[in-house]
Amino acid sequence: MGTRCEGLRDSLSPIAYYEEYSHFRLDCLKIDDNKELSMSANEDLAKERARCDFNVSEITNILDGGIERTKQRKKIESIALSNGKCCDVTPEETLGPKERYENAIRKSCLYTKIVKDQVLTLTGLEVLGSNSSVLRRTADAFFKDISPFLLHLGMFVPTIMGQGTPEQQSYWLPRALDFQIIGTYAQTELGHGTFIRGLETTATYDPDTEEFVIHSPRLTSYKWWAGGLGKTSNYCIVVAQLYTQGKCYGIHPFIVQIRDEDTHMPLPGVRVGEIGPRMGFNTADNGFLGFDHYRIPRNHMLMKNSQVLKDGTYVKVASHSKLTYGTMVFVRVMLVNEVAFNLAKAATIAVRYSAVRRQSEKISGEPEPQIIDYVTQQHKLFVCIATAHALQLSSNWLWKTFSAVLADMRGGNTENLPELHALSSCLKALSTSDSAALIEQCRLACGGHGYMLSSNLPLLYSFVTATRTYEGDYTVLLLQTARFLIKAWEQAESGNPVTPTVSYMEEAVVGNKYKWNGSAEGIIKAAYYVAAGKISSSVTSIRKRMKNGKAFEDAWELTGVQLVAAAEAHCRAVICDVYRKETVRLTANSSPNVKTVMDQLNMLYLSHWALERTGDLLRYTSTTEDDIISCQQRYEELLAAIRPNAVGLVDAFDFPDEILQSTLGAYDGRVYERLMEEALKSPLNAEPVNRSFHQYLKPLMQGKL
Ligand SMILES: CCCCCCCCCC/C=C\CCCCCCCC(=O)SCCNC(=O)CCNC(=O)[C@H](O)C(C)(C)COP(=O)(O)OP(=O)(O)OC[C@H]1O[C@@H](n2cnc3c(N)ncnc32)[C@H](O)[C@@H]1OP(=O)(O)O
Ligand SMILES: Cc1cc2nc3c(=O)[nH]c(=O)nc-3n(C[C@H](O)[C@H](O)[C@H](O)COP(=O)(O)OP(=O)(O)OC[C@H]3O[C@@H](n4cnc5c(N)ncnc54)[C@H](O)[C@@H]3O)c2cc1C
């Protein structure tokens, strides 16, 4: 679909290509076969680029984290994309389930080989660290849906790194990084996903043989969902209840071989398969897994945080009981970046398409405007660009926070873990939920063509909406953050110091109402006051319920709706704050126009959320109706100010066409030509008359059925 992919069939024009693969002439579709479909770029998009008043690559560099990182990313992308093998001549989505999976494996192996042979030599293991987002982004040129290797790199390897002893790491990591073994992360079971203390798979230590016996006692204990488990992996991390010397010590991670390394047959005592069609992830062979008293060596328990000695003695090593949950925290941090990137893709597609698409008349008889000139369209789209920036910058900030806490923990200090857990939980929840909603908004903004799979918007949505559920459901994670907030509120009330991300509570506990001020800093402060107000209301409700005789757990449960809203408000304030501070910091040395447009986007985001939460502002601050009116006016002015730079802003995300994989979003804007080219690839167009006509339609129509 992108320029390099076209190279695969360079010798054939689209019409000739179609005729080659079909058996009837294009005049059936009423296309004049003397004319080529237009190969020239769309003029409206060219005009948009000409009117953009800032240096696009400056913003690209900011989003990448500096000019050197942009260069590095482009180098990796060009290595991976240069041979054109990433593209499918037959669209992935028109294949049957087996062929899709096989094709995904073919491409995963191809991509892995490119990474191993060419990218790793360039970056070293950095590619899995700070460059992993580049690896992830580039992978999208190979897969429209998901690679079956995602869990291997995304969770199997990180779990060994985070939960294995140095000896275990030096044994397993070289094999895993070289893809001699492929693994996944099997935690969720049919019966339990959220409540992991309730998992039912058991790992019972047998000191006589120095082995663990892994067992699935009932149907609900079957592992369910792990990506790449159904057909691809031969190893996996299994999270199971550890029993030794007759006592249960709770859930622990184990490395379990499930298939023969040579034949790939499931090993005796292992029952493994794929879970069937899903809304998305259909190339990721998500699987089920059960064990019948299956034995693994003692040293296959990942023993960094706790150990079982040869005689069965249990030894706790870690200073914090939740360190076994470390991989989940890591992935939640990664996911903020993941969804920012996917939202940026959707925004690019929808903004470019809106510059190409013309519809209706603003003034009777006048030419039809580009749909991006409707203010309602700008309202739908510009917040998507701003949110992609907000989440990208928040994700960089969260990564730094995560790295600092990790460094502390290496020195035995787990003091900041609760704050990291609270932050990563709510940022994961809000970023995935916002991104899914806004990607759907981008699809709606593209009208009927947005519904085409070839636009790539439906697949982006089906992927991102899953991120709201996996790695901790939205509500469940916000309730985790709420636990932290309520405790912090009580600390602040009693005059004790609180941690940096909740320091706003120290001022807010006094109970004064904040007077609205429409500056960026004023809106952020108001957002913190809204959060404080909601936390305070939740505390009051819990206390009232307890005063009326409820136990704390019941009072908490009954206050759940307010607690989730409080955690949401807290997280929104944090995102607004981080987005503002990072924008100011990162544009300090930028050219004036870059500074201006980044500031406009930031103000748009802040005003958007102020307007979305007017009820809260009126309730928890001294905001007046006049303040809301001026905020609305400012918001509309910002839409108009951003409009001329909209295409430049999405160009700054710098997605090659191969990564966007969209008929509507390609750089040259040949939307209609690409839609037709893709339609012509439909298997139903491979013959003029489908056999069902003779089998069913004709007998029906002739009354002979
Ligand atoms: C070729 C391909 C190229 C690819 C390129 C590779 C690039 C890689 C990047 C890719 C990035 C991502 C890809 C990943 C794809 C992932 C797919 C999906 C995987 C999964 O879904 S795995 C399964 C995840 N499961 C969950 O998340 C379960 C959610 N549930 C929980 O986390 C917990 O059960 C809980 C809800 C937190 C409750 O736990 P628990 O009951 O034990 O705890 P309590 O509620 O009683 O709380 C007690 C106490 O502990 C605190 N606490 C809880 N969790 C943590 C924690 N993690 N850290 C610190 N503290 C924690 C809690 O707050 C309480 O504290 P308090 O008592 O209040 O002080
Ligand atoms: C595409 C996809 C890929 C996945 N990949 C993996 C993988 O590789 N490995 C793996 O181990 N798992 C994987 N999972 C599983 C995933 O982690 C879980 O589905 C997720 O954690 C949610 O758990 P659940 O399904 O048990 O939902 P449930 O907990 O049953 O949630 C159902 C509803 O109940 C609500 N709820 C549950 N508990 C509470 C509570 N305490 N308070 C209030 N409300 C509550 C939730 O908010 C939700 O609305 C994957 C899931 C998906 C969709």
UniProtKB/TrEMBL annotation:
Source species, domain of life? Eukaryota
Q: Please state where this protein is localized.
A: Peroxisome
Q: Which GO terms describe its molecular function?
A: acyl-CoA oxidase activity; FAD binding; fatty acid binding
Whether Lipid metabolism counts among this entry's keywords is: yes
Q: Where is the Acyl-coenzyme A oxidase N-terminal domain?
A: 55-182
- Specify whether Flavoprotein is a keyword of the entry: yes
Sorted alphabetically, which keywords does the UniProt record give? Answer: FAD, Fatty acid metabolism, Flavoprotein, Lipid metabolism, Oxidoreductase, Peroxisome
Q: Name one Pfam family in it.
A: ACOX
Sorted alphabetically, the Gene Ontology BP terms of this entry are: fatty acid beta-oxidation using acyl-CoA oxidase; lipid homeostasis
The record lists FAD as bound by: 188, 227
Q: What is its main location?
A: other
One Gene Ontology cellular component annotation? peroxisome
Which residues does the UniProt record annotate as the domain Acyl-CoA oxidase C-alpha1?
325-486
Q: Which residues form the active site?
A: 471
Q: In which pathway does it act?
A: Lipid metabolism; peroxisomal fatty acid beta-oxidation
User: Could you tell me which residue ranges the Acyl-CoA oxidase C-terminal domain spans?
Assistant: 521-702
Q: Which family does it belong to?
A: Belongs to the acyl-CoA oxidase family.
Protein name listed in UniProt = Acyl-coenzyme A oxidase
What organism is listed for this UniProt entry?
Bombyx mandarina (Wild silk moth)
Source taxonomy: Eukaryota, Metazoa, Ecdysozoa, Arthropoda, Hexapoda
